[in-house]
Design a protein that fits this description.
The protein is an alpha/beta fold. The protein is about 30% helix and about 15% strand. It has six helices and five strands. A five-stranded parallel beta sheet has the order 1-2-5-3-4. It starts with 6 loop residues before the first helix and ends in a 15-residue tail after the last helix.
Length: about 150
Amino acid sequence: MIPTDNVEEALSGVDIIATMTTSRKPIVKAEWVKKGAMIIQMSSCEVESAAVKKAHKIVVDSWDQMKENELSVLSQMVKAGDLDEQDIWTLNQVVCGKKPGRENDDEITMFSSRGMGCLDIIIGDYLYKEALKKGLGQKLVLWDEAKWV
């Protein structure tokens, strides 16, 4: 990885574009997305609609939750008639083999995550407890006493 303060330079021609920002406007331009790229949008609106249209497959973790998000570029595109709701798949459909994953090297795939924070906490707690049982990892002390309790 080479540090840069130029978004176009960072995204042009790369295999994987992963956005994790609080941006309220698109920062990923369609012309920067190459054939075969994987776009992972962790927020709602970091990828412009033209880049979404380039994607051969669009996958979300929960469409029911995503479509209620007014900031979501996917929700906006569906409401505007620029994207068919049937063209948006859920992650479990792909993982369970009901929908195909990448089928060729030129396919552009997009995953947009809305997520549920409670699931992150549950999974994190489970992994932490399993690591403790197995003596894995390193215990970090972030504070002696939680300030919010």
